[in-house]
Amino acid sequence: MVMSKFTQPPSLKPFKLALIQLGNISATKSDNIKHAREMILKAAFAKPDLIVLPECFNSPYGHVHFPVYAEKIAFKPGEPYDIGKSESESVKMLSSAAKECSTWLIGGSIPERDANSDNVYNTCTVYNPQGELIAYHRKVHLFDIDIPGKIKFKESETLTGGTTLNFFDTDFARIGLGICYDIRFPELAMISARQGCQILIYPGAFNMTTGPLHWELLQRGRAVDNQLFFSMCSPARDTTAVYHAWGHSMVVDPMGKVLCKAEEGEQIIYTDIDPQVFEEARAGIPITKQRRFDVYPDVSVAN
Ligand SMILES: O=C(O)CCC(=O)C(=O)O
């Protein structure tokens, strides 16, 4: 299902974004949740408007782990969610941390077990400053790759791909969601942009093979193609883990300039989003008004 009806986005306002490149992700879920909470509170000292966690923050990254760490969330888009009745300890922590810090929070992703089936998803949840769970995104494109001698990974062994594209509105921006491998499919970013998103945020965890060549290139590409801000938030690299994350969480502006970038280790990075850059990029290079749908079809139109 594709988002279809266009609604007017809020106008983009200046805001401060914090990315938590979380480290110490261990086999003990409760420790991971506790550490994530501590880091959210730490990030909140600088008074960001929005805090972001990385992909798979409560579990080691690997298809064998997803069903073991999966939690039932049972979120229904458009319907109020009762945190008190949630079966997910990760959701409860994220909600209370967002409320305590009075900030928007993109809760990275966690393995999620569907409430009505045995399907497991890689799911991102979003909280407003009141701690309400208001949006989610189930990773649409599963990370199945095989580069001989380098890396083989098959999320589809245990995960099911999501079937919806998702964004949410704050008082400072419309924000589009994706998770990691979703970035390789430009259609998703393009559709979010046409839906009025001014910034796209994808929790992610690239690796030591694809990270060096593609992590920054893809983010700058998506940012320039769509003339919007783009950000990915990674876990820190842990060379004792089976999966070595690339790290280098970053934020890119609509001209493709990297505004901030982490190294490999645990780190919180901040950036101030400036709407002027967004407006000047679109005014100066007016591709949003120059498309030739008489020559090629508009593939962003809902099916
Ligand atoms: O696309 C890539 O190279 C990495 C993707 C990935 O690590 C993921 O989807 O979790």
Automatic annotation (TrEMBL):
<comment type="similarity">
    <text>Belongs to the carbon-nitrogen hydrolase superfamily. NIT1/NIT2 family.</text>
</comment>
<dbReference type="GO" id="GO:0006107">
    <property type="term" value="P:oxaloacetate metabolic process"/>
</dbReference>
<dbReference type="GO" id="GO:0006528">
    <property type="term" value="P:asparagine metabolic process"/>
</dbReference>
<dbReference type="GO" id="GO:0050152">
    <property type="term" value="F:omega-amidase activity"/>
</dbReference>
<keyword id="KW-0378">Hydrolase</keyword>
<dbReference type="GO" id="GO:0006541">
    <property type="term" value="P:glutamine metabolic process"/>
</dbReference>
<dbReference type="InterPro" id="IPR036526">
    <property type="entry name" value="C-N_Hydrolase_sf"/>
</dbReference>
<feature type="domain" description="CN hydrolase">
    <location>
        <begin position="15"/>
        <end position="275"/>
    </location>
</feature>
<dbReference type="InterPro" id="IPR045254">
    <property type="entry name" value="Nit1/2_C-N_Hydrolase"/>
</dbReference>
<dbReference type="GO" id="GO:0005739">
    <property type="term" value="C:mitochondrion"/>
</dbReference>
<dbReference type="Pfam" id="PF00795">
    <property type="entry name" value="CN_hydrolase"/>
</dbReference>
<dbReference type="InterPro" id="IPR003010">
    <property type="entry name" value="C-N_Hydrolase"/>
</dbReference>
<dbReference type="InterPro" id="IPR001110">
    <property type="entry name" value="UPF0012_CS"/>
</dbReference>
<protein>
    <submittedName>
        <fullName>Carbon-nitrogen hydrolase</fullName>
    </submittedName>
</protein>
